[in-house]
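Q: Got one fold?
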Amino acid sequence: FRLFPWSDEILQGMLGCDMVGFHITDYCLNFVDCCQRNLGCRVDRKNLLVEHGGRTVRVRPLPIGIPFERFVELAEKAPRVLSTNQKIILGVDRLDYTKGLVHRLRAFEKLLENHPEHIEKVSLLQISVPSRTDVKEYQDLKEEMDQLVGRINGRFTTPNWSPIRYIYGCVSQDELAAFYRDAAVGLVTPLRDGMNLVAKEFVACQINIPPGVLIVSPFAGAGETM
């Protein structure tokens, strides 16, 4: 944060509020520490308080949520969209470099290399929602993803099975709830993410017995709260 040319001004502007909210406690502590280190503020890390300009500013974790009952209802009503007996590992992300999508595909490739017993039994369904399509870095990421999917599928595909099903685009909320419900594993593995509501949506849709398993990165805000 100190690399920002206007880091002090940003902090001072935020401290003009009576209360500053962040997704999780870790982010609150980071903010409190920045105020102490950059501005020399007196702080109370235990109670998340910052003294600045003769005022005391409260800092609070205020995690964003989802309409839980809505997703449960969708999961109960959505028709089945995965017509397969294979185990499905599901990823749902914006196509963004912070989401670790390239790392995810390479990890799945490594799984098939090291554990060939999963071939024809497990597939990765990756839904990548287009994002910032006019930015070159995002165009390059899309090209890299397309090439990786093609290479991995070309390497492992059999007449009856493809290791990766790749959807580049948006899906309806009904379809999404069905994907969440019927997947054996939900992967939420960003390199860095503020909260990531996909993790919460996935859990809300687990109405089957046995339910699917969520794997969430510690670098997603949701990792602290779930």
Summary: The domain at 68-225 is CATH 3.40.50.2000 (Rossmann fold). The chain has eight helices and nine strands.
